[in-house]
Request: fold
Amino acid sequence: MSDLELTLACWDYDRTRPLIDGRVKPEGIKLNIEVLRPRQMFPRMLEHQEFHASEISLASHASLIGRGDSPFVAIPVMLSKIFRHSCFYVRAGAGIERPEDLRGKRVGTTQFTATATTFMKGMLQHEYGVAQHEMHWFMGGLDKPTEHPLIPLNLPSNVKLDFVPDGDTLEKMMEEDRLDALISIYIPPSFLKGTPRIRRLFPDYKQAEKDYFRKTGIFPIMHTLALRADTYRNDPWIAKSLYDAFEKARALALDELYDTDALRLGLPWLLEHVEELWSVFGENWWSYGVEANRATLTALGQYVHEQGVSPRVVTPEDMYVPELR
Reply:
């Protein structure tokens, strides 16, 4: 019997490369992989379900599950995790020294319901007491035209969100004192140039991230792996096969990090940071599965409800197929 052919969209991470280059193959499946950046694959999957399986925004997935009209199911492969303390930028002279000072300010973002923004707004509310409705939001392009929302917005009436018109950008608004702060997953070009008018809200963001994890147990998950619901219904066994393959690929990536017999470029420096990761997160610092990520998944499921993009709290069990919970 021939293997089942499936299309998969993902980015070329160290943890997906063994699947891309064929060192790991899921049992019973022939994968046709399209290597795409998240901003390329997400609209194609969310709007048109172009792939049988795809890396997808965790907040978008949870929101669609909460709304009860998702065309996807997911398996607990956490392809992208990253803290976002470094992504808060403030304008010099705006009177913002602490997160609490964002209350009443004008804040720009490229995607109001992106996973990164969802975690950042959740952190502001739960760690610093600043709810999203206490800021005036502007959504637009950082230094290019405005991006449209990944999923339709239906926000609470007390949230003030304006869309930046064509010809204007968040960078320009910061330069002209029309914004006080930016929540940006991309580093603003003005910050890269060393412009003194913009700085990070958390100067020592690395320490802030460690403190946050030790307090909350949350290591923000950006992307998970989604399957088209019809694909899963037709062949439910593929969920376990894909999960096992992604686990093997992740294990190979980790093994290469620790291979001191054949160091890759820059690895001696990286190994110091791996040891630091162990001291904070433990050796299973890049875990897959629901239980190992429960604190993070629970927080995200609460945030999408609190922020008005899901009519209910979404649990970790809601997010993933039953056999892999």
